[in-house]
From TrEMBL:
Gene3D superfamilies: Fe-S cluster assembly (FSCA). This is MIP18 family-like domain-containing protein. It holds the Pfam family FeS_assembly_P. InterPro entries: Fe-S_Maturation_MIP18, FSCA_dom_sf, MIP18-like. It comes from Proteiniphilum saccharofermentans.
Amino acid sequence: MNEELQALQDKIVVMLRTVYDPEIPVNIYDLGMIYDVDIDEENNVAIEMTFTSPSCPAADYILMDVQLKVESIPEVNKVDLNLTFDPPWDRSMMSEEALLELGMM
């Protein structure tokens, strides 16, 4: 990955760390809900993500928050979100910071 793409990737991760599930006091990135962030040569961003549960009551809110926040980065052209449940989320996907925050370590 070249320097420009890496810088944009870093900005996207910073922005994703500002998105929270209202029921869990940890951001969705550290929860492991972001499976992939792909940036093409035109700075279109494709994000593959999941929820902790397929029946997440805050799903619409979280998706809208991700969309708006990543689109707010000036270098980003377009954002496509791909919601998947394969593989299903489990706590092994959480960062050490998330596990500590939730008292699971």
